[in-house]
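Protocol step 4 of 5: obtain the predicted structure for the target chain.
Materials: sequence only (see below). No template structures provided, no constraints applied. The aim of this step is simply to have a reference model before the mutagenesis design in step 5. Sequence pasted as it appears in the construct record:
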Amino acid sequence: MKLLIYSHFFLPSIGGVETVVLGLARGLGEFRTPDGLRRLAVTVVTETSPGSFDDHGLPFRVVRRPGLAQLRQLIRGSDVIHLAGPALAPLILALLARKPVVVEHHGFQTICPNGQLLIEPAGAVCPGHFMAGRHRECLRCTAGQGWLASYKLWLSTFVRRFLCTRVSANITPTRWLAGLLHIPRITVIPHGLERTVAPGRAAAPLGPPVVAFQGRLVTTKGVRLLLEAARILHEQNHSFQVLIIGEGPEHAALEEFVRESGLVGRVQFTGQLAPAHLEAALARASVVVAPSLGGEVFGLVVAENMQRGLPVIASDLGAFAEVVGEGGLTFHTGEVADLVAKLVQLFNNSALAAQLSVVARQRILELFSQERMLEDHLRLYDDLLRSIPR
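Step 4 output (structure tokens):
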């Protein structure tokens, strides 16, 4: 089987989509037939430039920034087309070529013009204006990009939604997202994690509790909310440290907030960390907080830290709640007082933290393994190929 995976973003870019696509392409490329032959020839097509990254170290072919004619040729030469998101050009070309097309939804592009399901000016969770027909609210939300760009995003949402009703299958990583999209032929395949993350720790780190955040420093990730919680904890004379792991456009503004709030010495910004340094940093953590305001369809960072055996506190977005289950705590999205209460609860209850550590790791190993994700994808591709009239 010749499988083409299209992902607008890919290595060396860093993010959830890139991580999932890499794991999918690498894992599927390693499937073998009983006589030892590869079951799939995998090609990843992306618009991301390689920079200094060497694609030859990957166990699959990578085609970067193809022209329209080359993309059409690649699609016509493949058996199954897998799109990491409803990218318009490859989606249209694949449908015209009458190929089995699978769209894996990593965002809300078919139900929200900005793809985040977040009201950008207010930083609040969108109640679903597009699907409710409140299109003036959608245009107002994205007006900061200019009215021409705003209308383009709005119209593109209709187009993406229509095209996704014509594909062979739509994949969502959570049942919650499947319930929001309301498009046909949806199958839920949760993202899977390789079993390479260090096992849970035998004991909590010594010293003051360390509250860790891991992710991009952008508004939707809610880092400012975590720092507001830290300011309240500081005013209440709690002993703690905050570790901010990641980089992004909000970095300078967040550092300024730390200075203005008297949190210098309490908060450390590490920037983006290499894998070995990341593990060392998280080994210091007592709890990981995922305070996202919106834009989450799964919560890869949540799952990864649960597999590490770290207690997790996450905002109660539908995707996070589905992944966390009984393996962590949730707080009301955007409500700093509730986040503070959950942090104090863990600070004061080491037994609860230890229990969550065990339950979290077991939940990820049982429900979110990479093996299960790969097998579910392969089964779907096989079913689609068998359904083609001969």
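Step 4 remarks: The longest helix spans residues 147-164. The two ends are 16 Å apart (CA to CA).
Proceed to step 5.
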